[in-house]
Amino acid sequence: MGASSDSEDDHELLSYGQPSSSSTDNHPHSQPLLSNGEPSSSSRSHRHSSFHRRYPTLHYVVKKWWKPLFAISLPFFLLFIYALIHPHVKGLPPLPKVHFSSGSSSELLPENVYEEKIVEGCTCGITDEGRRLCEIYNEEGLRNSRLVQGSGARMRRMLQKAREGEALKIGVLGGSVSACHGVHPSADYPQGDPAGPGCYTTLLKQWFENTFSDADHEFMNGAIGGMDSSYYAFCGTHHIATDTDLVVLEFDVNDQADLLYQAFFDQLLRALSEFTTQPAILILGAWSPQVAQDQGYGDPQIVHAPISLYYDVPYISMKRLMFNHYLRFPKSTAEAFFQPDLVHPKARGHRILADLLISYLESELCMLTHYGLPVVPSISETISTSEPFSNFVDTPFPLDTLHLIDPITPPPGWEATFDTEPLEKLKLENRKFVLPTTPYFVPPVGIFTPLREVVNPTKEDPSSGKHITGLIQPELFCADANDKENPMKPTSSEGWKPFVWNGEKHYWVSDTPGARIRVEIKVTAGRVAVYYFRSQHYNLGDARCWVDDNEKGAVHLAGYWKKQYNVAIVAYIDEKVTPGDHYVTCEVAQNTSHPTNPDAHHFRLTAIMAT
């Protein structure tokens, strides 16, 4: 047995190029000693050689493969170090995408699946704050709150600017929810201090200051109680700067579930998107149980959502998070999160609004870290291309659909439509449809613009995209009583006077039948509108308004209505006015629509608008 063992060891050593030795080398008494009892150098060398003989494979691997192993492991070590410092150093490129597999082709992770997992992983963001919110609301709740996620292109560009240490300008447009009514009443703000510590706007501001602390960010709250998107669609630039980087819009409570408001919301998103800074826009869907009691689930969200999708604007919805909970626990939910009017949120409700906004921003910050900014396509691949149709979509053979004339008898040659050979070939055609000019693209036409005003499919294709990208958008005009720098100044106003309600809302008002006010306007696209106050309170009466001397075409406006909330609304009084300078006249009507008070003639005018 011993001889056999020696023979196997010798064979293994010889196979690795090591010299053989006799079995007597392993005897413990065969090692020479120095006079002090320590083994001699030759003895230590002998023991080292003995170790090599005992563990030849390990020695061989270390000696021959350490350099390749070091070269292979170095990139992963550097990646690990980069991942550690990346969250703490601003302006670094995003982390590279790395994943591992067993090598089996059946087990390889497809790229789209990997990206989906990153997107799912970004629901909670990458910071402690994002993870805290996930623990409070859970991932499913936060995902449900994101009614429209959007591409996030403008949002990530804004976050990248902040991460590089630049100061941001952040603006808010909305109604009394964004003005924080009822949460922090004070002597200066009886309805509530809009900068109070529990307001969602304050909490959002604090997140930006804490997350991007290298710069002093400017925060502009242009919200006014009772105002809706129709007002800001014309007058929004009076309340936030046109070089704003991020605009938060909150109109799910004050807007009407009316198709007319789709046109206003379209106009608002277009006007904001075309600011010189191409700002990121974020729609915050606050929710009101009182509105739900009147309109159910079909509140203004059904008006805003299609416009949000068209303009690629993310939409965060409080209703999507809370609706089922309200159905199950209506009284407890209302009392916990809303004030007694069931319209305005308490501080706890504002905390939800802030958390949903911050959670979304955290998720986009995570996506920015993984993917960076979107790539701008080549101009030849976009709607501005001068390339021919055939360079994008390949139609190598005719495939005409037979014209149907007789609803009973099929047209001649109908049998050929069932030939499967050309239908199979359709799978091989190239279809690279043109892209937007940039990831921050604004659709060239309004969502309701009839395309017959822009293109003609019966004529030859245009030689370039200038017929689309060169469209001139109408200019917005707003003579606004709430404009702090340039308030509305009537050229005549006998029987009318300026009025401020609770230090917040500005009007021109009159109680005198027959009193007239005249305001100069500038028209570009032909539409003129009046923005006025409506309520079932305050003894509101009626007025008549018209353009220039067209008193016969005056539009009658009723101040009284039966709805439970008090808001100003817009009404078009003319839609075919020639471009240029004009004027609008409004007169308090002799009659009134008030159902119980025949002497109710009070009328509040907020703004005169035009496009």
TrEMBL record:
Region of interest: Disordered: 1-48
TM regions (residue ranges): 65-85
Composition bias, Acidic residues: 1-11
Domain of life: Eukaryota
InterPro entries: SGNH_hydro_sf
Coiled-coil parts of chain: none
Keywords: Membrane, Transmembrane, Transmembrane helix
PANTHER family: EXPRESSED PROTEIN, SGNH HYDROLASE-TYPE ESTERASE DOMAIN-CONTAINING PROTEIN
Protein name in the entry: SGNH hydrolase-type esterase domain-containing protein
Native source organism of the sequence: Kwoniella europaea PYCC6329
